[in-house]
TrEMBL record:
Keywords: Membrane, Transmembrane, Transmembrane helix. Pfam families: Lectin_C (PF00059). PANTHER family: C-TYPE LECTIN DOMAIN-CONTAINING PROTEIN, LITHOSTATHINE. InterPro entries: C-type_lectin-like (IPR001304), C-type_lectin-like/link_sf (IPR016186), Ca-Dep_Lectins_ImmuneDev (IPR050801), CTDL_fold (IPR016187). The chain crosses the membrane at residues 304-324. This is C-type lectin domain-containing protein. Residues 1-74, 165-278 form the C-type lectin domain. Gene3D superfamilies: Mannose-Binding Protein A, subunit A. PROSITE patterns: C_TYPE_LECTIN_2.
């Protein structure tokens, strides 16, 4: 079977597709081009609403939907093709947009969004696909018949840092390493031993993911917290270590280095002892291209600027489904 179906009158009215009732459309609502069909196709009565793919030519033949045939499933594959595909249904009665599914493939960076219902204003008539430039995801919306483009900025970790959580990119390396050799190992990668760049709780959550989810051998890796001159505990960036960063009963003030437990909490550790793995932390790199769009609605004019999302993994980029939907809802449809 193919994804091509004959559009019903109800679907045409709800989706606003230009082909109208009886036209053949793909799952994303776009019309099936004439050259997708075998010669003389489609040729069945209007009661025949499905189409199969010829195994020899790859061309379409219309056929009864009740016919039993093989199932072939398709999803976006990673490749250098600058593709953006999004299937959208607009329900005018409930004033919602259903996205099913969405995938972006942009120079080896990949995004999916599936099965999300978004609120919209009464003015929006259709969302269309826009080929993104560089590492952006762009969506086009029609407000009062006028197309407007909204672009989302993508944040990418280096391929040497295939693990991520929140705003942190991580590399797990083999040891053994003392504290100083672990620090030098990370510095050679333009990284550092782990420390909170902003919110301590978010960093501790990231540490929990790093230690418990990614590598079972990553037991008590070195942290970026050390005691300086026998006085104060400081992070790699010079900030003072918060008291809530420590595990219960820590620090014992007997050692000058520290390791991170599975809850993301610090424990003192002798600097000269070795740990079997090293965890290096890097900041994400941000693509600096920005896009600003102004969307006019009946109520007000809304200016929309590039939105930063936090995502990464080796060579691939995944948007957080909930976070991405919130951005769409807050920035596009409110």
């Amino acid at each position: 079977w193919s994804g091509a179906v004959r559009q019903s009158a109800a679907a045409a009215a709800a989706g606003g597709d230009s082909g109208g009732a009886g036209s053949w459309v793909w799952p994303d609502g776009s019309p099936v081009p004439a050259d997708a069909w075998a010669q003389g196709q489609p040729n069945k009565p209007t009661t025949v609403d499905c189409a199969y793919i010829s195994s020899s030519t790859g061309l379409l033949y219309d056929y009864s939907c009740s016919y039993t045939s093989y199932t072939l499933c398709q999803e976006c594959s990673v490749g250098k093709s600058n593709e953006l595909t999004m299937a959208v249904t607009v329900d005018r009665e409930t004033n919602t947009i259903e996205v099913v599914p969405m995938c972006v493939n942009n120079n080896d960076y990949y995004l999916t969004l599936d099965g999300i219902v978004l609120e919209t204003s009464p003015n929006i008539t259709r969302i269309e696909n826009v080929t993104p430039g560089h590492h952006e995801v762009c969506i086009k919306a029609n407000y009062d018949g006028e197309p407007k483009t909204l672009c989302f900025q993508v944040i990418v970790c280096s391929s040497n840092f295939p693990h991520w959580s929140g705003e942190y990119c991580f590399h797990i390396g083999d040891g053994p390493h003392t504290q100083i050799s672990a620090e030098n190992y990370c510095l050679d990668m333009s990284a550092s031993l782990p420390y909170p760049m902003d919110d301590l709780n978010e960093w501790q959550t990231a540490m929990n993911a790093a230690i418990t989810d990614w590598n079972n051998d990553l037991d008590l890796p070195w942290s970026g917290a050390t005691m300086q001159s026998g006085q104060n505990w400081t992070w790699s960036n010079g900030d003072q270590v918060q008291t809530t960063a420590w595990a219960t009963g820590q620090p014992a003030e007997s050692e000058s280095c520290s390791v991170i437990d599975s809850e993301g909490l610090l424990n003192e550790w002798a600097c000269s002892q070795s740990r079997p793995k090293v965890l290096c932390q890097a900041t994400y790199s941000t693509i600096t291209t920005t896009t600003t769009s102004t969307m006019s609605t009946s109520a007000a004019t809304t200016t929309i600027t590039t939105i930063t999302t936090i995502t990464t993994t080796a060579g691939l980029v995944f948007f957080s489904r909930i976070y991405f939907v919130q951005l769409l809802r807050n920035r596009l449809f409110n």
